[in-house]
Amino acid sequence: MAKYTLRLGDRTVEAELEETPDGNLRVNIDGVWQLVRLRRLGDTPRYVLVLDDRVIEVLAEAGPQGFNIQIGGRPYEIETGRGRPRRRSDELERLVDGEWTLRAPLTGVVAEVMVAAGDPVEKDSVLLIIEAMKMLNELRSAVAGTVSALNVKEGERAEIGASLLRVAALSAEPEQPAG
Description:
This protein is an all-beta fold. It is 3% helix and 56% strand. The protein folds into 2 domains: 2-79, Glycoprotein, Type 4 Pilin, CATH 3.30.700.30; 93-169, CATH 2.40.50.100. The strands form 3 sheets. Strands 1-2-3-4-5-6-7-8 form an 8-stranded antiparallel β-barrel. Strands 9-10-17-15-12 form a 5-stranded antiparallel β-sheet, with no helix packed on it. Strands 14-13-11-16 form a 4-stranded antiparallel β-sheet, with no helix packed on it. A hairpin with a 2-residue loop joins β13 (126-132) and β14. The longest helix has 5 residues, at 88-92. It starts with a strand and ends in a 10-residue tail after the last strand. The model is unreliable at 82-92 and 174-179 (pLDDT under 50).
């Protein structure tokens, strides 16, 4: 049995994963066991996850502390290390000198830039679209404010963690994105 720390939006949960005697997988989250099937699509980071008869496409890349995954265009982390789990909000969504930095949650190519420096933005508005493994991923603002710096152009490759743009925030702290 393997144990993982999952961060789902602003919620952190412990999960257990084990193989059943018949070769299937099951996962325990919040005390509820569910059968799961996971199939990798070729030699890519794309997977198909079947959970309770729901089919979910997942993009997964190994990271320094575990895995960075994307489900429905939203980034999540699965941490496999020991110790206190890092919170995505601590690292990627905090304000520094009144500015929030959008960092690439995955490696891909900037397909579309929706804003320019000086543009006002609302919380949850789409700022950029990154293409990774033929999937278009909308990257949204965690704060309302004004775009203060744009660090990428359409067609450029963005590595995971790269600073894509900055927003001068209207409020002191960003709200957690819906997870």
